[in-house]
Amino acid sequence: MDEQLIFKYFQQLSETQKAQFTQLNALYAEWNAQINVISRKDMDHFYERHVLHSLALAKYFPFAPGMKVLDVGTGGGFPGIPLAILFPDTQFLLVDSIGKKIKVVNAVIEALGLQNAIGNQLRAEQLTGHFDVVVSRAVTDLETFTNWVSNKLRGKRKSADSGGILYLKGGDLREEIAAIKKQWKYDIQPIRQWFAEDFFETKQIVHVF
Description:
Layout lengths: L3 H6 L5 H20 L5 H4 L2 H15 L7 E5 L7 H7 L4 E6 L2 H14 L4 E5 L11 E5 L4 H8 L14 E7 L3 H7 L5 E5 L12 E6 L1
Parallel strand pairs: 1-2, 1-4, 2-3, 4-5
Antiparallel strand pairs: 5-7, 6-7
Helix pairs in contact: 2-6, 4-5
């Protein structure tokens, strides 16, 4: 599958955005040959399993101009880089504890000419500053992740569309939700409602706020 999968679901892209999404596959293939940031198997389904999966967050949440977004455990830059392409007026900080992954993140950001994203080698607990939204792809269980990043969120969130934690995760989440629901409001949305591909059958967005 190629970048046409992205264009199928996001039809209002500018020519610049189309070019940036198109460049992604070659950039990651080149870097992956040097530093294994994406499994070889997943590179065969790169746009579906990495780019489109990341962009599911855009179908659910209105990332507004001027918002500050933190991507924790970004790995090779997901979901942060696809979101930064889609929302050029939103600011993205992508962090990971592994330096070689952040090297790839910043190289891709530079190659794409993104002015609204930067990578930094940090653990979440080392980070200072506050953010409107924290995003991530299943780096740990939901309770642990919420404890890591809750103090990075800016102020009180009065409603779901004002920010919080957006977590991409699959499978049965009942136990993880039970562990957080006394302290947090939450919403769970199946990604299959937006994307028809079988890969998304059990994939979900968990919004904690």
